Amino acid sequence: MKYTGAQILLECLVREGVKTIFGYPGGANLPIYDALNHYPSIHHVLGRHEQGLTHMADGYARAGGGVGVAMATSGPGATNMVTGIATAMMDSSPIVCITGQVASYYIGYDAFQETDITGITLPITKHNYLVTDVRDIAHTVREAFYIARTGRPGPVLIDIAKDAQQNAIEWAYDDSPIRLPGYRPDKRPLPADLQRALELIHSAKRPLILAGQGVLQSNAMRELREFAEKTQTPVAVTLLGIGGFPASHPLSLGMMGMHGEAWTNRAIQQADLLLAFGMRFDDRVTGSLKTYAPNARKIHIEIDPSEINKNVKVDVALVGDLRETLQQIIPHLDACCHEEWIASIQAMKDEVRPRDIQNLPDTGHLYAAHVINDLWRYTNGKALIVTDVGQHQMWAAQYYHQDDPHLWITSGGLGTMGFGLPAGIGAKIARPNDEVWVVAGDGGFQMTMAELATAVQENIKVNVAIINNGYLGMVRQWQQLFYEKRYMGTPMLSPDFVKVAEAYGLTGIQVNKRPEVEGAIRKAQETPGTVVIDFRVEAEDCVYPMVPAGASLDAMIRRPTPEPEMEFDEI
Amino acid sequence: MQHTLIALVEDKPGVLNRVASLFRRRAFNIESLTVGHTDQPGISRMTIVIDSDQVSTERVTSYLYKLVNVIQVEDLTARPTVNRDLAMIKVSVTPTNRTEIIQLVDVFRARIVDVSNDSMIVEITGDEEKIDGFVEVLRPYGIIEMVRTGMVSMLRGSTALTTLYQNGNGNGNGKSH
Q1: What's the confidence (pLDDT) of residue B164?
Q2: Which of A141, A266, A327, A383 is 20 to 30 A removed from B23 (C-alpha atoms)?
């Protein structure tokens, strides 16, 4: 049977299990849009900006929907995707971006809406393709999905020339094995290294697990817990590792790093063994490398060999899938306890809790930490939280105590403002029965708030909590702490978000005092459509503790000690 | 110090760009890079000389492996190899020094490939030191133009890098596997 390139593309997408395409049409992908009429099993979600499309595909993938697919036209459509692709790359999120390209015979002649998107995205994709021949579409799509979801996942871009979309050939789907001689994601650790790792584990007195996103991506939550409980090893999580280990577990230390818990960062500095599980020793996690965990041996279990010894030199590297590797190790673990070590961490917790944990009384001001904590309480800790980037993101990481995996989506590596709302829409499409809350700042929300229209058009309910402090808060915090409060460029005027919501036909609520928080959250939960809550929080609050960039991990700026008469909040 | 890496890559459009872009992005300096076909259809061979320490060389090796089109990478620096660079040197000649230059060409086992009234093109192959030495000897006569291919390198003995790959031994960066 004869198929056009566009039909072949869609046939292949169907076979990859694609149910949703986040797209935007234009001149160079019109043949694909025309063919979409005949593929009712694929739902097309029209975004409002191509950056939003890539974040939607990313949120969809991270919420467990499988490989997310975003589609745009050539030129500006493609370049608008760049931020979302880079975001997915830094956070190892499996998405496939399909861009239309001008006809092959125009490529290189600066045709209308021509851009070299494969060249542009070369360093921010796991791999990319330029397809100029209809016969290359099918195997390219299969390779792209395979590469995106296997090994260390990541974004793959396919740029398809318009004539390749239009040309028709005799074609039948071919599911013979994919041949990629240079791509071998199925790595396994060497037995000698496993043996060496066991020796280090069994001789450790002060071990500590650093759990990253790899725990969630390799589905190793059970194995992590088994390992931690059997060896009585405390577990700290990275920003993207949140949910990989229950926050309420007695061995949980919470988040590490720049805005990690004080006891966690101190424990890392005191540990004699670090077990890095699916994390990459990012600079926001380590602080100064010169002084990082000076007493610790390090075991690194990681699927990407290029992460081994990249930032932190390790004693044992186990390259492979985390879950499989832990399954190999666990049967050989001796049960043990580290009572002294755990007690010493508990002492650090007790010492810092009164000053670091939110203990601000209701002074008539609304604090973001209170809002997040209330959100956690009134959603029973079961909501899927999708954040933007900035102070609210850190507060959400600190005060929304995630016990379950895959309920936390945030832009970590790239720190992309504008990520929250579109990623939340994508996540809701992947998990329609989940209660989805987008937590965003007033700055980041305004970067992509046009996607509210997408939510309306798709009849999607997400709840949006804007932590509105009238500043680009995290930058303002740096200006406060490191630039003597010279607030250049950070005070920010916002529209009336209630009216913005209403303009989109949605419900908007403004909250100014803590007693109003519960009612607003409840109302959002009860309202059928998307609700935008504008939380007018304290303008000049800071995220504590904070390790200044490049400082030693235990050199933290702490929240000023509260006045003695302040009453503590139970959490 | 100089490290010599061999990369066997799929012969596909843009592969050279991917490799070159990687070195740029990760802030490595390429001293020389050559690429050409191998005896196996669809597989090209790159010889990349970088100025870098051992740790950085291991890093760049693992980054190269992240490129889907890169099949195998070997660091030949500390191994017995034959290394060859080819240079064409256009040198000024006069009737009085012509014979002298021809004698130097013979001493270095170079070849004269073009002659005009006032110039000659000399072709020389060898390792980089030999060519550097020859260039210095010719310099006083007046070098008009020079071109070098960059180094290519091959393991001594009967082992081939492609054989390593086909046996499944060359599947990654050394001890991580």
Answers
A1: 61
A2: A141
A526 is catalytic: no
Q: Quick check: bond before A562 cis, omega within 30? A: no
Give the relative orientation of helices B54-66 and B15-25 as an angle to the nearest 10 degrees. 140
Distance of CA A195 to the CA centre of its chain: 33
The domains spanning B2-79+158-176 and B82-152 adopt the same CATH topology: yes
Q: Which two tokens stand for residue A472?
A: 């680009």
Could you say which residues from 291 to 310 on chain A have a Cβ atom under 8 Å away from some Cβ of chain B?
Answer: 304-306, 308-310
| A303 in Cβ contact with A219 (< 8 Å) | no
The answer to whether A190 contacts chain B (CB < 8 Å) is yes
B98: tokens are 């012509």
A119 at interface of B, judged by CB pairs closer than 8 A = yes
3 state SS of A103: coil
Give the C-alpha separation, A366 to A397, whole Å.
Answer: 18
What is the pairing mode between strands B43-51 and B30-37? antiparallel
A113 is an active site residue? yes
CATH code for the part of the protein at B82-152: 3.30.70.1150
> Which CATH fold would you assign to the domain B2-79+158-176?
Alpha-Beta Plaits (3.30.70)
The pTM is what?
Answer: 0.94
Pairwise CA distance, residues B57 & A366, whole Å = 53
- Check B177 against A187: CB less than 8 A apart: yes
CATH 3.40.50.1220 domain position(s) in chain A: 191-348
Determine whether the interchain pair B21/A122 forms a contact, defined as Cβ–Cβ distance below 8 Å.
Answer: yes
DSSP state of A175: -
Chain-centroid distance of CA A557 in Å reads 26
Mean pLDDT of chain A: 95
B52 residue type, one letter: S
Taking the C-alpha atoms of residue A542 and residue A534, their distance in angstroms, rounded to an integer, is 19
Q: Which two tokens stand for residue B146?
A: 């020079």
Determine the 3-state secondary structure of B157 from DSSP.
Answer: coil
* Residues 527-546 of chain A whose Cβ lies under 8 A from any Cβ of chain B: none
Run of H or E residues at B143: strand B143-148
- Which tokens go with B82? 């034959």
Q: Tell me the CA distances in angstroms from A470 to A51, A443, A444, A498, A508, one per residue in order.
A: 24, 8, 12, 15, 18
What are the DSSP E strand ranges found in A14-141? 20-23, 43-46, 68-72, 95-101, 127-131
Domain assignments of chain B as residue spans, ordered by start: 2-79+158-176, 82-152
Question: Counting beta carbons within 10 angstroms of the beta carbon of residue B106, is it exposed (0 to 12), middle (13 to 18) or buried (19 or more)?
Answer: exposed
Q: How far is residue A364's CA from residue A538's CA, in Å, rounded to a whole number? A: 10
Q: What is the ipTM of this complex?
A: 0.89
CB contact under 8 A, A126 and B177: no
Our separate counts of H helices and E strands in chain B read 5, 9
Tell me where in chain A the CATH 3.40.50.970 domain(s) lie.
2-169, 359-536
- Residues of chain A short of pLDDT 70, as ranges, are 353-362, 561-571
Q: Does CATH number 3.40.50.1220 belong to domain A191-348?
A: yes
- CA–CA distance, A75 with A72 (Å, rounded to integer): 9
Q: What is the pLDDT of residue B163?
A: 63
Topology classification of domain A2-169? Rossmann fold (3.40.50)
Task: Give A126's contacts in chain B (Cβ within 8 Å).
Answer: 66, 68
Q: Which residues of A touch B69 (CB under 8 A)?
A: 182
Distance from CA of B108 to the nearest CA of A (A): 41
Question: Residues B46-98: pLDDT tens digits?
Answer: 999 999 999 999 999 999 999 999 999 999 999 999 999 999 999 999 999 99
Q: Does domain A359-536 have CATH number 3.40.50.970?
A: yes
Q: Which one-letter amino acid corresponds to residue B22?
A: L
**pLDDT at residue A354, rounded to an integer:** 65
